[in-house]
Amino acid sequence: MTLFRSIATLFLVMIVGGQSLADSPAEKREKILMMREEVLSELFDQRPQARAEIDEAVGYAVFSNVGVQVFLLGAGGGRGVVRDIKTGEDTFMKMATASVGIGLGIKDFRAVFIFHSRDALGDFIKNGWDFTGEADAAARSGDKGGEIGEAASVRKKVSVYQFTDGGLMLQASLHGTKYWKDKKLNALD
Known about the structure:
This protein has helices spanning 2-17, 25-46, 49-56, 118-126, 183-186; strands at 59-84, 90-115, 129-141, 144-145, 148-150, 158-181. The chain has 189 residues and is α+β, with helices and mostly antiparallel strands. Strands 1, 2, 3, 4, 5 and 6 form a 6-stranded antiparallel sheet that branches. It is globular, with a radius of gyration of 16 Å. The N and C termini lie far apart (44 Å).
């Protein structure tokens, strides 16, 4: 079992940690903002009602995450940005996921959080914790396959859409996900 954990950890570090190590904070912010536009465009194409939800919301967040599940343990990580619609302010954030459950595979997915109250938005930026349970089967290669769906969140007054960008995973697990401000990306250069 230790061998599998080591392989999963090494693979996750290579995927998540190897992305953009040499990029400046400004370049990382630009990549995250471009990812946000691509994800929102895909979401609006597949779930047009999400545009109306965002138009009526106080804010939204878009995250990109890569996760690995090897038998009973899983981990993932990514980055994203929270948009306060009233102020127009963007807050760049990181995320990390740990899971316990049965599964095997790698999944690259996107999540969009839509905040329907100022308290929910502020609490997410300040505390950034989400805890969900899920069972899913996702497969996508290029334009073939995939999934999109609404996920249940412990938070009230928050809608969550998540969909795969690529990968193959079969799992039934309980996830703990932590979101927090990215100090480097929120600092002025």
